[in-house]
UniProtKB/TrEMBL annotation:
Protein name as catalogued: CysZ family protein
Superkingdom to which the source organism belongs: Bacteria
Keyword terms, alphabetized: Amino-acid biosynthesis, Cell inner membrane, Cell membrane, Cysteine biosynthesis, Membrane, Sulfate transport, Transmembrane, Transmembrane helix, Transport
Membrane protein topology class: Multi-pass membrane protein
Length: 258
């Protein structure tokens, strides 16, 4: 239970740090980027679909004895357009954050680096740009392989459980917890990657405090599903993940300058 409380405490600390003068710039830039991209795509998609509905129903009108229903007909069309905006918001809330994470990853790396230096007082390891690109590329391939085959396996388990009466209530929980673990790994790995800790070592360190990692990922996962909140949670989660790494999980001496 102490690890569960620690995970929530790290997120609360991160909200405060995100508003600090030292980190504000690194938080605001990706935040503005997210809002512009999210808002732009949301407005374009909603306007296009709403315009199509309005054009398709422009000639809808009842005549004769049924003309008194035209008001209700127009109300239903307006309600359909409103429903489109609401459904689009829900869709963007659940899917868009994945794309934003990929696009905003470089900004998140800089934010994690700033948090690490502020927390440890030690500079980042020296590394040339070509070496960094090659190392990062290899790490992303390794990370993709880690979650891909496991996701397929867990999806199979979830599908099997789903068709078992009574037990099927746990199917969604299994997938949610697995997704939370992956999300926690992603955010914590920013700190480990900046310190050039091998991916396998990072994974082993995560297992030393499973409940801390799982609670952190599950809470972030839940917040990511909330419309608009998912625009703000990413930099906060990066700060929290970096703090969890440097204060709880990093191998002794890892955050010291070589």
């Amino acid at each position: 239970m102490s690890q569960v409380a620690d995970a929530i405490s790290y997120l609360k600390r991160s909200v405060t740090l995100a508003k600090s003068r030292e980190l504000r710039t690194y938080v605001i830039i990706p935040l503005i980027f997210n809002i512009l991209v999210f808002g732009g795509l949301y407005w374009l998609s909603g306007s296009w679909i709403a315009g199509w509905i309005a054009a398709a129903t422009a000639d809808w009108a009842l005549t004769g004895s049924l003309s008194f229903l035209n008001g209700a007909l127009h109300f239903l069309v307006d309600a359909a357009i409103l429903l489109v905006w609401v459904l689009l918001l829900a869709l963007f809330a659940s899917v868009f954050s994945i794309g934003v994470q990929l696009i905003a990853a470089p900004f998140m790396g800089f934010l994690a680096e700033k948090v690490d230096i502020q927390a440890t007082g030690h500079p980042m390891p020296d590394e040339s740009i070509p070496a960094m690109i090659l190392r990062t590329f290899k790490r992303e391939l390794r990370k993709t392989w880690y979650w891909l085959w496991r996701a397929v396996l867990i999806l199979f388990v979830v599908l099997v459980v789903y068709f078992i009466p009574v037990v099927n209530v746990f199917a969604s929980a299994i997938w949610f917890l697995w997704s939370g673990w992956l999300l926690a790994m992603q955010y914590i790995d920013f700190g480990a990657d900046n310190r050039q800790v091998p991916f396998e070592v990072m994974l082993e360190r995560l297992k030393t405090k499973r409940w801390l990692v799982l609670t952190f990922g599950a809470v972030v996962m839940g917040l990511t599903m909330l419309p608009l909140v998912n625009l703000f949670i990413m930099p906060v989660a990066v700060i929290a993940g970096t703090l969890i790494w440097v204060e709880e999980l990093a191998p002794q001496g890892n955050n010291e300058t070589a």
